[in-house]
Amino acid sequence: MSDNAGGEVVATSEGPGHEHGQEEVQLNIFRGLPGEEGQQVSYTVPFVTGMVVLDAVHHVQRNIDTDLACRWNCKAAKCGSCSAEINGKPALMCKTRVEDLPEGPISVAPMRSFPLVKDLVTDVSRNYEINASIPQFTPADDPSEGPWRIQQEDIERVYEFRKCIECFLCQDVCHINRDHGLSAQYFGPRFFVRVASLEMHPKDVLDRREQTRAEGGIGFCNVTKCCTDVCPEHIHITDNAIIPMKERINDVHWDPLRALGRTFRRSSDGSVSTS
Amino acid sequence: MSASAPPSVDLQGRASRDTLGWLDKLRRDAPWWVYPVTVVVALGLFSLYAAWTSIIAHPSSYGPYLSPFYSPQIWVTGPVSPAIWVVWAPLIFRASCYYYRKSYHRAFFWDPPACARPEVRKGKYSGETRFPFVLSNLHRFTMYITTVVLAFLWYDVARALIYNGHWYLGLGTGIMLVNVILLTGYTSGCHSLRHLVGGGLDCYSCSAYRRARKKTWNVMTWFNLRHSVWAWASMISVVAVDVYIRLLMSGLPDPHILLG
Questions:
Q1: How large is the ipTM?
Q2: Would you state the pLDDT for residue A270?
Q3: Considering the domain boundaries, does residue B39 fall inside one?
Q4: Helix B227-249 crosses helix B98-107 at what angle (to 10 degrees)?
Q5: pLDDT single digits (tens) B62-83
Q6: Hey, which residues does A122 pair with through a beta bridge?
């Protein structure tokens, strides 16, 4: 396989693809516009060893149906643009190798949880609205502190969350968005990761727990871990972000020993503590 | 990630999906219904057995051995089994465990049955915000009690080992020891305990005490990574101990060695 100047994938005649005995790939790509009933359109494209689904879609776009809409950018699984549903499973088209998929036609559809724009492109702007509603990183207002010195052990936990490429596959696969349509009352996995990265930051002083519980609807999450399963960056969304946030909220609402401690503190000094 | 770390291992030492073991590959490639069916059968059988042994059957103890369903041992008379007074906390602890929540929400309630599979159930969804699943938050409460029960289970093993002033090395002692080790592994990986030990802190370097908590958190993270394995293994071992003791009660000899 090689790339020509235009970025088009070209098969070599002795390519290992022939060793697999597969010379063509059949794609069933969703085509449609909002408000109309879309349809799966079948395309046949040449198989090249190592090709990913995005290569096949590009072949269709360049050679067969030039008006096929598909969002992409880096083709290196780092920009998070080419999210789609491949054989019914949310995945990045640029990270899904054709030879890793079962034999037979490959279905490519847009993410189901977001409004359709055209063909494989969806409107993910709801995610940016949620993001804007989360108070940003807020350090203590202490000018005397000088340059920060942050220890590795304090910050390494947050590094995992910084790997997020905002592909929104986790938002797409989450059944609370996907099947229950509760996205207006629910932040979703991506933004619980963001909240966790802020809450666990040693220099951040804001408390976003109540917002995450009430406005973010973290209680809707029933921990079925599909977000973790589809994350192309292998972030342990459930174990390291959502559950720790649930536990931080439980510190306030569901911990009998802490509740007892708060009661004693209240009775001894007349103050009310929430943490 | 540090420069020296292998590229396929993340900060917590978790292998990426590029280095999946055969079991993970088998799980990934299995049809979607295999997981829910397996969970329904396994959890269903465990629930039935737990209900039978702790409500209907006679108390399960024999010689130096005491069933985990009846530990800590209490003596009560009346129509209610003594197990009821002790077993509720570990059972609710398991039922509200974050791993089991995933299992039974997928398997029993099909909410969802598998990732990206359409749900069958229609109607208003409230998740863990309303009754009954809001009670999953009792996990913290039952975790406190279960850690105390776990201490009693270790005591039971010690008491079985030193029986009537002798070292009693029986097959049952071995089964009880394996069981309590598995239960300790399961409890050590508990998300709630992991949070209390160090997960709830933002600054680990602020004191020596917090640094020690971070080290403990690292150990618990190791257990947490394999929480599902510990959960299933300990569930089976709890039943195995009870079944073995009931077999002894019905007349099966207990192979053992007496020392001292």
A1: 0.88
A2: 57
A3: yes
A4: 90
A5: 999 999 999 998 887 777 788 8
A6: A116
Q: Is the pLDDT of residue B168 over 80?
A: yes
Partners of residue A198 in chain B, C-beta under 8 Å: none
- Flag whether B11 is in a domain: no
How many structural domains compose chain B?
1
Q: Give me the pLDDT at residue A21, please.
A: 62
Tell me how far apart the alpha carbons of residues A216 and B59 are, in angstroms, rounded to a whole number.
47
Do residues A234 and B17 touch, judged by C-beta distance below 8 A? yes
Q: Burial-class residue B136 by CB neighbours within 10 Å (0-12, 13-18, 19+).
A: buried
Q: Quick check: is B259 in a domain? A: no
* CA angle (A34, A40, A45) in 5-degree steps: 125
- Per CATH, which fold does A2-122 belong to? Ubiquitin-like (UB roll) (3.10.20)
User: pLDDT for B8-35, tens place per residue?
Assistant: 333 333 344 455 567 767 776 788 899 9
Q: Where are the domains of chain A?
A: 2-122, 125-260
DSSP element (H, E) containing B221: helix B208-225
**Residue B12 lies inside a defined structural domain of this protein:** no
pLDDT band at residue A269 using 50, 70 and 90 as cut-offs: low
The model's confidence at residue A20, banded by pLDDT at 50, 70 and 90, is low
Alpha-helical segments (H) within A64-188: 125-133, 152-162, 169-173, 175-178
Token reading at A39: 């349809």
Helix (H) or strand (E) holding B25: helix B22-29
Angle, vertex CA A166, rays to CA A162 and CA A172, nearest 5: 130
Mean pLDDT of A76-82: 96
Q: Report the distance separating Cα A190 and Cα B256, nearest Å.
A: 56
B1 CB neighbours in chain A (<8 A) are: 159
**Res B60: pLDDT:** 86
CB A155 within 8 A of CB A216: no
**CB < 8 Å from A in window 68-97 of B:** none
Contact: A154, B205; criterion CB under 8 Å: yes
- Specify the CATH superfamily of domain A125-260: Alpha-helical ferredoxin (1.10.1060.10)
Name every chain A residue with its beta carbon within 8 A of the beta carbon of B129. 217, 219-220
- According to DSSP, residue B9 is labeled B
Segment A133-163, tens digit of pLDDT: 999 999 988 777 778 888 999 999 999 999 9
Task: Name residue, tokens 């020296």.
Answer: B4
User: Does B112 sit behind a cis peptide bond, omega within 30 degrees of 0 on the bond before it?
Assistant: yes
Range of the domain at B89: 28-253
CB of A145 within 8 Å of a chain B CB? The answer is: no
Q: Are the beta carbons of A24 and A59 closer than 8 angstroms?
A: no
